């Protein structure tokens, strides 16, 4: 990854930088709290943390507009927070409580928000890619200029359904951005052990889909690439691929002892490439914020996260009758033409 530049780019305002700092730190602190609650036995089932990857979703959300859609894998808490979903509802879902986004019946991998155009949370590797393509098909069919973001991992990028989706998206010129969050591991398998060609962003070439490699530890680089991809899709030119190089600091899920990589490797990423520290340095070096300003942002976030944990602990477990609800649709949704 490129060496970090700490001088603020001239076209980025102090407020923007502060917002990215805030949004990335919210995800990190929220995930740390989720890890703690998991350790205390308050969260059951699967729990995949997003720590280290925060700049990917925060950068792309900065390039998105109201009404754009997103869908992702099981590593989904960061995407929910970044698109504006309520931390209380997300944490309560993690603890399986009534106040959660799926009334406590979905857990970490199965949350949705129609209001924020967040379409999940999917546990089957790669399954969200055709769904994201379908979301883009719906928008094209309805004749609006919305864009869909379909996020998936480097491991998922080796799945057949990804290429079926590429083909259909290219044939129909669908406004979908295929976002490959390349955190360099698929469970315990390093990308170089599983993948014949490391340049995933080039895999759209046979379909005529442009692709770009992006430094995912630099939120500004992600935003810039996101804006280019969004402009391409919105102007009707069809799909776009972003391969965003990032790194997950924690294990694949809470139950992963992470013996397949060295401590030094993780330490090196944390110390030299951390996306939050990067923005923090830009804010301080560019005199856009004082240490006290940053402390006050840290405090705001601590309060939000602590409140979400309190809410999640205090919310009751779903009533037994809830077992029989939300199984079949009561109404078939209709769209006005
Ligand atoms: C179809 C399918 N195969 C296997 C699994 C088990 N599995 C869960 S996550 C994962 C690795 C995916 O890695 P990647 O796409 O790089 O995403 P990351 O976890 O790194 O975000 C696997 C093999 C699954 N959930 N679904
Ligand atoms: Mg991966």
From TrEMBL:
The keyword DNA repair does not apply. Its cofactor is thiamine diphosphate. CDD domains: TPP_E1_PDC_ADC_BCADC. It comes from Pseudooceanicola marinus. It catalyses: N(6)-[(R)-lipoyl]-L-lysyl-[protein] + pyruvate + H(+) = N(6)-[(R)-S(8)-acetyldihydrolipoyl]-L-lysyl-[protein] + CO2. This is Pyruvate dehydrogenase E1 component subunit alpha. It comes from the Bacteria. Keywords: Oxidoreductase, Pyruvate, Thiamine pyrophosphate. One of its GO terms (biological process) is pyruvate decarboxylation to acetyl-CoA. Its EC number is 1.2.4.1.
